[in-house]
Amino acid sequence: MPYISQSFIDELPNQVDIVDLINKRVPLKKSGSDYRAPCPFHGGKNSNFAVNAHKQFYHCFKCGESGGAISFIQKFDNLNFVEAIETIASECGLAIEYDSNSKPIDPRFERYRLLSQKVGDFYTAQLRNSPAKDKAVQYAKARGISGVIAKRFELGFATPSNKDLLVHCENNDQEVADLKTLGLVKEGQYGDYDFFRDRLMFPIHNTKGNIIAFGGRAFENDAKAKYLNSSESVIFSKSKELYGLHHARKYSRSMDYMLVVEGYMDVVALHQAGVTKVVATLGTATSPEHLKILIRTSNVIVFCFDGDDAGRAAAWKALKITLSVIKAGATFKFLFLPDGEDPDSLVKKESAKAFEERISKAQPLSQFLFEHLKAEVDFDTIEGKTLFLEKATALIKSVNYEVFQQQLLEGLAQVVDQSIDQVRSIADQQKPQVQEPTKVYTELDTEYEIPNEVDLSSFSGYDEHSPVEYKPVFKKTNTKVLMSKMIALLLNYPTLAESTIEVRVRAIENSQVLLELVRSAQMNENISQSELIEPFQDKQGIFKRLNQLCVLEPHLSEIQAREEFLSILTTIENQQKTEHIKASIHHAHTLEEQQQIMEGILKGKRKT
């Protein structure tokens, strides 16, 4: 993404009227040479907040908050510096100037955003006007969604027909092509069809309020896929977007905490109840990118999960990712709901005030960390306490924030009733555990290994700052390690399993586990990780390792994951081809036979 020109940033305050800008958010009254209002940052009824039109400056005489137009938008709209500039430019009709030395903006970005807004308007219109709208309207009413909240989130309706959206755009070939790129229209055996059908639609907005993708909720709770998301694209990455973040910033006067829930309906229902500081991940686990965004938004992040085993497992996964990201000023907490309750049902049963009281009493990260690990061992025995210490210190060592790491070690010392020096000594002895490869039996009486020595956190060639130009790069690597990476990618991105992929995987030697996963993913495009690995439950070695690979979620977008997967597959094919050539040459009985083999290889290269 190109940098905004410094000259544009310097000149921006001279091209906008700070009074108009603030007045849209805080009603101002003329008072002498200034404009006055109650301070939007510390509250109160007195008009301590002054805006000076001549100096293009604001100041609160009570709390001391002050600054110019960019500063105000940053603080009031809870935006970062670039987002604030883009917001001001958009509201004032200014074209942002970018540094001429940086790369130009990809023209597809704006085209895709405009089309996404058009699709959003189409779904919204269907919720109002479609003859089939009654099902959607009744569902929204049953869930307690008011017209005001439906409008706030731009909720819509995808009709049962499989071509309504396609017909809406059929006169524009470019739009139809773009709909396919964005995953809103699919190509099938009997022609193109709408991806979303007979669902309540949730537009997904970026931080500036632009629609960049969609989620669809089925009306039946026993539907094969209760929620669907549109595909990732150059404008949408699930690991970098949070549903409801734009609305949380827009409708919350302060960001003293940010609640992270699991579903779209939870976000909408909490807004309906008046709890607005809430976001949801988009059908994926919390990623480091999510956490960095959250930390920029608020100093207190509260994860909200169901109290069952699945909820606690998801919370534990979030905790482990959080440990390496946490930094000074950030606090993470965990809120577990009563059995059978979700945020939507609980806030209706209690009240917004009672729910926010639960948020204020959420469990600190350190407490959840120690309690979870204690539950995994027999803490009353020496052996159990030893295992607890090893597990805890290994996790604490992943914390990069030194002050917090020190506090965790001191807290751990209190839990095990040992001195801090003893605990620190144990922590210093911790080394990454390297297990032997797990041997797996296949029906072909061959051994296929899913090795442990695979680091999925940062694949080679990955550059988070240039996702459009992402190109995987692989050094010569053991085929089993590459196969393990492919399995991990498929477990996290089942949509990678296309028919052409199955043909190529089938041709690879000792690929039975991967092939079975590909076939399962092809049969059900919305299959979950647990459903993918379920057929291997009787093969304990495979099942255990697949569970480990499910946890190791690569920090890639869906597009990058596809490129990574295909690049690994090509690498394995080339390595296998090379090995076959070497074997053929090795088994040649005469020099003449070797020469014939080499000539055949050269002829093949000329043809390609």
Secondary structure class reads alpha+beta
Mean pLDDT over all positions: 82
Number of helical segments with 4 or more residues = 26
Shape descriptor reads: globular
The N- and C-terminal alpha carbons lie at a distance of 36 Å
Share of β-strand residues? 5-15%
Largest sheet: 5 strands, antiparallel
Radius of gyration, in angstroms, nearest whole number: 28 Å
What is the number of strand segments? 18
Strand arrangement, major sheet: 1-2-3-4-5
Poorly predicted runs are 432-476
Share of residues in helices: 40-55%
Description:
The model is unreliable at 432-476 (pLDDT under 50). α20 (479-492) packs antiparallel against α25 and α21 (499-506) runs antiparallel to α22 (512-523). Helices cover 49% and strands 13% of the residues. The protein is of the alpha+beta class and 608 residues long.
Q: Can you summarize this structure?
A:
The chain is 49% helix and 13% strand.
Structural descriptors:
alpha+beta, 18 strands, single chain, globular, 608 residues, 26 helices, 5-stranded antiparallel sheet
Topology record:
Blueprint: H1 6-15, H2 18-23, E1 29-31, E2 34-37, E3 49-52, E4 57-60, E5 66-67, H3 69-76, H4 81-92, H5 107-129, H6 134-142, H7 147-152, E6 156-158, H8 164-168, H9 173-181, E7 185-188, E8 191-194, E9 199-205, E10 211-218, E11 227-229, H10 245-251, E12 258-261, H11 264-273, E13 278-280, H12 288-297, E14 300-306, H13 309-325, E15 331-337, H14 343-349, H15 352-360, E16 363-364, H16 365-375, H17 382-396, H18 402-416, H19 420-429, E17 438-441, E18 447-450, H20 479-492, H21 499-506, H22 512-523, H23 529-533, H24 540-551, H25 558-587, H26 591-607
Parallel strand pairs: 12-13, 12-14, 14-15
Antiparallel strand pairs: 1-2, 2-3, 3-4, 4-5, 6-9, 7-8, 9-10, 10-11, 15-16, 17-18
